[in-house]
Amino acid sequence: MMLNFADGIEHQNGIWFYNGGGKTLTNIFGRTLLPEEVRESKYYRFLKSCPTMYDTLQIILVHAGVRPDEKYNDPATYNKEVYGLKFDYDFYRIWAREGF
Q1: What is the mean pLDDT of residues 89-100?
Q2: Is the pTM above the cut of 0.85?
Q3: What distances in angstroms separate CA 50 from CA 4, 33, 39, 82, one per listed residue?
Q4: What does DSSP say about strands 53-55 and 60-62: parallel, antiparallel, or unpaired?
């Protein structure tokens, strides 16, 4: 959510601020920053460099969910739109809410 804010995808009335984004910025930086200020930070660069999924032979680490099929790691199988939001490869793994 912080990356979306910094990249201009979400504004200060968005879901991240609703869920404590302003407090997060204050805790990290001492004040609420503008999106471009967040983009210049080491935190932004670090989070941008992290994969949304890390898998080993035995464990899959992901924020929200992994589709329970053989093509779970195929980006081409994730492109669909729901309620105007594009559910691409990374979006699904961060925001999946379906039961598995």
Answers
A1: 68
A2: no
A3: 14, 22, 15, 26
A4: antiparallel
